[in-house]
Queue: 4 jobs
Job 1
Amino acid sequence: MQVYLDNAATTNLRKEVLEKITEIYEKTYANPSSVHSFGRESRALLENARNRVAKNLNILAKDIIFTSGATESNNLAIRGIVNAKGKDKEIICSSIEHSSILNLVKQLELEGYIVKYIRVNENGIIDLEHLKSLINENTGLITVMAVNNEIGSIQPIEKISDMIKGKNIHFHVDAVQMIGKKELKPYELGIDSMSISFHKLYGPKGVGVLYIKDNIEIKKAFYGGEQERNKRPGTENLHSILLADIALDYAINNMEKESKYVKELMDYLVDNIKDLENIKIHGENRIDNILNISIKGKNIQMLLPILDMRGIYVSGGSACMSGSVSGSYVLKNMGLSEDEVMSSIRISLGIHNTKEEIDYLISVIKGI
């Protein structure tokens, strides 16, 4: 049996997307910037997709910039904001952000920006009192992910927004692991910019969204044409955008049903392994599809190949840090021991998983 349990890294396309691939590639290929009628048809399809994506994300179409994914969206937003605000404005970032943010702010530190890091507790939730102590009149940007990609901890986005209300501080949220699983209303939550990737919700790779309020100034990251509000030049990835729109629409309209299904699988898994002597579950207040556990006495470099040989595909943490042999910085910053860090795996479920697959996983874990 082959069991794919790495859905926090990427997902399989849902069948509704697969069914449309050939049609979209065959019929829609003109450049949306071309002025002839075929190009105008492509432009109309692009803007229709933008409008529907905006509706499903609870935002306005004018606030959407299509990108290649969340890594680009995070970079475009954060570098664009800090470059516009200047080096006299400080950056505050959680210590367990995705590598596309942490590595960016580390680079900004080298360029002369002041960056402060928010502590997290043993459950991977940011310390709000510590955040409060970091904020001052020079704070220009706060970036905190909605859901951590390694342990699934849900961050107190609304409380952060309330804390900085009226302070002229830009609030950026990486929402990759939340969209399609829980409702998020950026305007109501005071989120100024937000990143998503469609391949995390059963859509195509290579396409994402940066939501950023239309009246917020950001400096360009690179130069070219005037596409995407003159903020992200280059011909739009129209085929992938149209497929992403389909994936998001199905994810949002089926969110309650699909989230309930995945939660039932996760609850069943947790109930069957939580009392095992060699298992430790990390974090509380988690998103329903992500589970991070340590298996006592099993180093990850030995554990992952064992699971792989038995047809179980999980990860040792973030897919973007899969080449690292030093262990998860997320778990380290939560205060886990070196042994716990080096024996941890991430299990992330999806809508295509079955109870039979979870039973197989449980039997393998019990036999390790």
Job 2
Amino acid sequence: MIQKFSSWICCQLGAREHYSIPRSLNKAGQLTHLITDAWVPPDSMLNGLPKPLLANLRERFHTDLAPASVYAFTSSLIGFEIAQRIQKKTGWEQIIARNDWFQKNAIRLLYKLDTQLFTLNYRPTFFAYSYAALKLFHYAKAKGWRTILGQIDPGPFEEKLVMEEHARHPTYQSNWQPAPSHYWTKWHQECSLADRIIVNSLWSSEALQQVGIPEHKIDIIPLAYQPPQQAYDFVRTYPSVFSDERPLRVLFLGQVILRKGLAALLEAAELLNDQPIEFWMVGSKGISIPQPSHGKLQWIGSVSRSATVMYYQQADVLLFPTLSDGFGLTQLEAQAWKMPIITSKFCGEVVKDQVNGLILPQVSGQAIAQALKFCLNNPWQLEAFAKNTDTSSFNLSQLQQSLQALPYAVI
């Protein structure tokens, strides 16, 4: 007899994907518990602080999960982060310490919930994201639970690409370092313990297979995104001609690092220096720029999640020339605001070439410049792309159906 697993426990470090997996499961009545590092409901004392303080932490809540069973370690997280600063831990040392801290707290909680979980009439499905799942999977396997790994990026194959990009551009100084070897050893162990591995794009699936993860274990499920209500009524307009008074506004939103195609973007900016175009660079800067930045580049810096809305509304096109991304949620956010996208082939499949944007044949300054010149010379085409934007196939209901259709979900 086929029986669907209707009980899920989700362990999530961070606000990844706006909590889309636990939200979709909760909507279907299948989320038993969400275990996360921080949760700040509206009545939290933290929301009484002046607005700039702990802005990102205070966004760690979602109304869709207000009625759900959510366990978090918010106070412990604040203490952990303070200790990390005092100890001056950074980079991989800090990332690995945070992953270990989260798993230790989650396992301690699971032991407390042991009696309650034992009363379930079926084995729950246990979901956790990569790099913070190994200890949790050992616990889940000992209980006889099904284990699902959410792979957040294309793994060690991506690291190899980034290493090569840094070698090609030594003048762009950064603090980037490859992960220590034991980081990847533990990841391979996570993959071995996982019954299924969820990736968000064909690109990620191919990258995992390149390092020995069997294809039969991998399932491709795109990200889900629920547009904000005000996005549905938003109307995007373009001038008949771009000019110095009304230039083409190109939005780059994300980490300002080489993996995101920064070297090619900056080369394109130089090639287009005499054109009515400006680049809005929104995100934390992870590389130093050797040449002086010309006036076309506006370095805005890091902003909170909620503050990105203004840039989606006011820019004309999103530039996403990534060398490698597991998906690129910013693509769905841009589409929700009816914004055309110029993207690479190395991420989630959101853009249909010449329908709702442009797909770069390669990540190079020349290719980006050519795509932007097309936009400059054809504002009417941008308007057509904007009318073709669509996020309907990336909704929570579709995500929930995809999760239930996975082979592990039946016995």
Job 3
Amino acid sequence: MQPSVPGFPLKKHLLPVCFKILFDYRTKVEKVLTFSSGVLEASGLYAYAHRKAGELNGIIREHVRIIDDLLVALISPQAKTFTVEELSKDYDYPDVDLNVIDADWW
């Protein structure tokens, strides 16, 4: 199964460029979506501004799935998935509890 975009003929030589455009866009959007991620406490207008940004980010997250789905189709047209156990066994992927590691830094 090859990735396809309705209404556009598949031209394999353009797939890397298409991927780069979508990936760069998605990377930039992620920076916007994490705008308030470091704010632990706020009040007044400061809290209001971050709350409004968070509301808009929720809307953006719902719609950015369109880009995510295209990226998945370009990366793995068969939509292959792997368990952490498979990755650990076959590719030496670290199977660690990130919460424990994060807690060590607090």
Job 4
Amino acid sequence: VLVGLGSGLLNTGLFHVIQRAYEHAPAATVNLAGTFFGVGCLATSVLVAGTYYVYTVGSILFFLALIPAFFAISYAKFRFPAEPFAQTLSLRAALADFKKPAAVLFALLLFFQFGNEWAIAGWLPLFLVQRLGISPSVSLWLLALYWTALLVGRLTAQAILPRVSHGKFLLASVLSAWFGCTVLGLTNNVFGATVGILFTGGGFASVYPLVVERIGHRFPYYHPGLYNGIFSLALTGGLLAPATLGWFAERWGVGVVMFLPFLGTGMVVLLLAALWVEAKLSALAAGKPSGPAL
């Protein structure tokens, strides 16, 4: 409970702090935040994998607790600028925007996408241990490989999106994710698991940059409350998906773990298509271009 409360407060605070950076470069700011999040996940996986047989679980958790403790002390000594941020939108207007179809679709899309990514991340080590009989340390290294594929794929996608058709790129990404989940669900060896992890992570990677680009175009202004609401719902999806998989695994076995992300990827495609339609209709109603097409 304390970890959840702390994460929620941190999330809210960060959306206030990045306001000026977002106003300068919306898509780059949110992409950079996602990149740092991926780096943190990768670093944590490597740390736990490398120390699994050296320290106890309690010791590893203590080392992990030192990281937020360091930043807490640093932020306590840091003095933020006294001048107020320029408020371009009232809280009431931001909350009204959160009820609009575009904001709801963005929130739902990130809800399912975070659920897909975190379902794999939360269950991959246990899944590999039970299905392949490998050691926990090796399974954690494979988890680090998953975060690496996701991070590298995301950076690559951000670089090539302006040069490729978004629709074709999304189709290739979805097929990659579906293929990866299928391979992971059927494999009985480490090589197959590695291939499945690379295809799954690479397939998931492009969705976040695509969504961020659409958000930056659809909501060019910035209000911390609006973005905190969208990403709080996304984080909820990321937390609920592994818990839901636990219920499924208890009933039908650990093999079902790859089934939920497979279906979730299809839901993400449908929501991206719905966002494209909503953007076209909004542009027609306003008489202006709808922005980058999927």
